[in-house]
Amino acid sequence: MAKDTYLTFSNTIELFRINTRNVVYIQASGNYSELFTADGKKHELPMQLGQVEMKLDACLENNPDAHFVRIGKQVIANVDYISYIHVSHKKLVLSDSHTFSFTLSPSVEALKSLKDYLVKETEQC
Fold it and tell me: CA dist 5 to 43, 67, 70, 112, 117, Å?
C-alpha cells in the first residue's frame, strides 16, 4: 500500500495540510495560488504556482504513486482526475466520476501537449 504524502503550507498565523490524493488541481492567481480539493473546497495558498510546483515535486520525490502535471502557465493537475480533454474546444474535465467535476479551459497548446503526454504515458485499454 502506498504511503500517504501530505502537502503543508504555513504562514505566521495558520497552517494548511492536505493529503496529495485529495488535491484535484492548483491554479495560479497572481502572487497566490488556489488549491481545489476533491470535496469541492478552494484554499488560497501564500505562494506563486511555480513555488507550489517545486514544493510538490520535493514532497512527491519518494512517492511514485502520486502524479501531478503542469498544464500551461496556469494549472497543475492531479493526473488521476483527468477524465476528458477536447483540444479544439479548450476543455479539460477533472473528475472522480462520482462526486465532483471541474471544467477548465487551458490553452489549445497546453491541452495538445497534455493529451500527447497522456497517450504516451498511459496504457491504452
Answer: 18, 11, 19, 29, 24
